[in-house]
Design a protein that fits this description.
alpha+beta; Aldehyde Oxidoreductase, domain 3; four-stranded antiparallel beta sheet; three-stranded antiparallel beta sheet; 2 helices
Length: 136
């Protein structure tokens, strides 16, 4: 008897992007599903603290917002724990981010600076980060 194989739905969800117009807000988003630990918030703070001050930004101080919340906890049992002993102690908080969701919202940051930030983030976190500009 020949065995039938069921193929799983292995398709990437379509990412909806807003219209590319010149606006104040720029978003950093991911292409794939990713798990971000909250240890990386320190990395985001370090990256966006470095900024180039120009004559324009004297009047408008650049700002950024981190747009993900904790929705998953990592727990761990001790090495010699038996089955049925529960989930274990709390280790750290993480956030599972869907593809195409904005992670960081920026206001009055330079596009070239954000491109360098995305390049550094892809080096540190194994995922591809892109920038989208929205007029809102």
């Amino acid at each position: 008897m020949q065995q039938k194989h069921l193929m799983k739905n292995r398709h990437l969800p379509e990412i909806t992007l807003c219209k590319m117009k010149l606006g104040k807000f720029k978003y950093v988003y991911t292409l794939r599903k990713i798990r971000i630990d909250f240890v990386y918030i320190r990395l985001f703070k370090k990256l966006f603290r470095r900024r180039f001050i120009k004559a324009k930004t004297r009047f408008f101080k650049p700002k950024y917002w981190v747009l993900f919340l904790p929705n998953y906890t990592l727990t761990q049992k001790s090495k010699n724990a038996r089955m049925g002993a529960g989930v274990g102690k709390f280790v750290r908080l993480t956030s599972i981010v869907k593809p195409g969701k904005s992670i960081i919202k920026t206001w009055y940051y330079n596009f070239t600076f954000l491109r360098q930030v995305c390049k550094y983030l892809t080096y540190k976190i194994p995922n591809k980060f892109l920038i989208k500009k929205c007029y809102k």
